[in-house]
Design brief:
It is a single chain. The protein is an alpha/beta fold and 261 residues long. It has 2 domains: 3-68, no CATH class; 84-254, Vaccinia Virus protein VP39 (Rossmann fold). Helices cover 23% and strands 32% of the residues. The protein is built from 6 helices and 17 strands. An 8-stranded mixed beta sheet has the order 6-7-5-4-8-9-17-16. The protein has a 3-stranded antiparallel beta sheet with strand order 1-2-3, with no helix packed on it. Helix 1 (3-13) packs antiparallel against helix 2 (15-31). The longest helix has 17 residues, at 15-31. It is globular, with a radius of gyration of 19 Å.
Length: 261
């Protein structure tokens, strides 16, 4: 529904495809018009209309211009607060090929966008590279900042994902991320002999790269640092709970190595 997404569809698929898409989703948004809000987007920093779908949550309410919802707004605020004018000196990796944070993060010295699809190689997709967060192809110490939103809960080997963040970050670098808020950290599913084994009832989340939804392998709660301690990372909540859902921004900071006296 966001103008940015409509424009992207026009460029990639043509005006008719964009019109069909708008007509397909319009009824859901018109049904949610009572939840539309005027305000200032903390991501693109414009005065905007936040549109919402019928029976939607804060997750579905998004900026008309940049499509940012609450979690992307929180990430944008944290990035600006943490890095300010130093962003152009940083090398950044974002685990999202279509993020509304792209205009902000594009100010970095280098900005790499990545996506993951089963069986993909190093092929590029709209300038983004295919990467597995549990086995990144980047050299150790390649980035000052990694950003992800609603990614880590879908990774079967979350321990490996965090270990890879520690490996590719430079000393004092950080991985800022959001995940759906949960009361505690627990494994929902695992892969055994190549097959998914469900420990909890299956939970699928909406994903633009997967129309059928994507399986959540983890619930991630405030006890994450104790549940999955990761060598080389100090994991904590960087931005306190916000909104009705109590969303937070997490930070996994690369610990500076110390030498023995």
């Amino acid at each position: 529904m966001a103008l940015l997404k409509v424009w992207r569809t026009i460029r990639q698929q043509g005006a008719w495809a964009a019109l069909r898409k708008v007509l397909r989703v319009m009824p859901a948004y018109l049904g949610g018009i009572g939840d539309w809000r005027l305000g200032r987007c903390r991501c693109c920093e414009r005065s905007t209309l936040f549109v919402a779908q019928k029976n939607g949550s804060a997750e579905s309410r998004a900026c008309l211009f940049c499509s940012a919802n609450e979690r992307y707004e929180l990430l944008a605020v944290e990035i600006r607060s943490r890095y300010g004018e130093s962003l152009p000196k940083l090398d950044v990796l974002e685990l999202d090929p279509r993020s509304p944070l792209r205009p902000l993060l594009s100010r970095a010295r280098s900005y790499t966008r990545s996506f993951y699809e089963e069986g993909c190689s190093s092929v590029q997709k709209d300038g983004a590279v295919c990467e597995d967060i549990t086995a990144l192809t980047f050299r150790s110490g390649s980035f000052d900042l990694i950003v992800s939103s609603e990614v880590l809960e879908h990774v079967p080997r979350l321990d490996r994902a965090l270990a890879e963040s520690a490996r590719v970050l430079r000393p004092a670098g950080a991985h800022l991320f959001t995940v759906p808020p949960r009361a505690r950290t627990r494994r929902r599913a695992e892969i055994v002999d190549g097959k998914v084994v469900h420990i909890e009832p299956p939970e699928y989340h909406l994903d633009p790269l997967s129309p059928e939804g994507i399986l959540a392998f983890w619930d991630i709660g405030p006890d994450l640092p104790q549940a999955l301690p990761t060598k080389g990372l100090h994991i904590k909540i960087a931005r306190a709970p916000s909104g009705d859902a109590g969303r937070v921004v997490w930070v996994a900071e690369k610990v500076k190595e110390t030498t023995a006296p």
